[in-house]
Amino acid sequence: MMKEANPQKFSISQSLGLTLLRAFIGWHFLYEGIVKLTDPEWTSQAYLVGSRWLLNDFFHWIAADPTRVQWVDLLNIWGLVLIGSSLLLGVFARFTSLMGILLLALYYLAHPSLPGTLIDPFAEGSYLIVDKNLVELAGLMVIALFPSTAFFGVDRFGFLLRKRQSSIHEPGEETLESGSAETVPAISSPRREVLKALTSLPFLAAFASAFARRKYLESHEEKILVDGITSATMKKFEFTTLASLKDPVPHSEIKGLEVSRLILGGNLMGGWAHARDLIYVSDFVKAYHNQEKIFETFALAEQCGINTVLTNPV
Fold first, then answer.
1. 160-219 tens-digit pLDDT
2. 3-state DSSP of 31-86
3. What residues have CB less than 8 Å from 206, skipping those under 6 apart?
């Protein structure tokens, strides 16, 4: 009969691949959490209100009360930060993987990518059932199912160190001879294991550097601009109503798809306004185009015959 392979002996390439999987998912979780943490205006209310599938009544119940929304925001932000940090460093990674699976499952239940559902305004791509939440959830399942010795990180070093200490009292356990029940590799070189445990530190340093660089680039344009270079303007505004509309906006076809010849801009959702020297315009646009105003604009455009909007993912 064939002898069963040692389930906890992994090659360097296998451990490196699993470690990269853990670090990449941790990077994404940590970034999502820090971005929300540093944005005082971020809230999950619109995301909860937009839920149209399982548990939608529960999500709507949360969104109906500002206090409940604040608690959910707090739990969501710090859950992302702690899970991401744990995965990036390899500390309690299997436990936090389970927490991450739970969080991603809630995300999917709120906004699944199922056929026949409405277009999700929170989705940044096109999906069919399987979206990035399910992909990361599957990755976390892999991390949770593999032993800590399969990954480079603090968990592996701590586990092997404990086994090393226990083997002092039971020296027969650490041998890997034929027929032995022990499957945990001994620490042949403590220095190498320390280096493997510190493998995640470069990821953390790279994350901090990339995040700082991104924040700098986002604020650089506004820092170098003056408050405004304007002159007096005389402008007479004439307001009109739908009753004055002679005909709807004409349509054309692009490969069988009927689109209006006038396309609605999408900056009302993103909140970006390229006003050159007026640095406060972006904040003004975001304050004006709240959720109610956006759908009011869409409804007005639809009545005018405009059925197309050009926008970036929000």
1. 566 666 655 555 444 433 343 434 455 555 666 666 666 777 777 788 888 888 777 766
2. HHHHHHHCCCCCCCHHHHHCCCCCCHHHHHHHHCCHHHHHHHHHHHHHHHHHHHHH
3. none
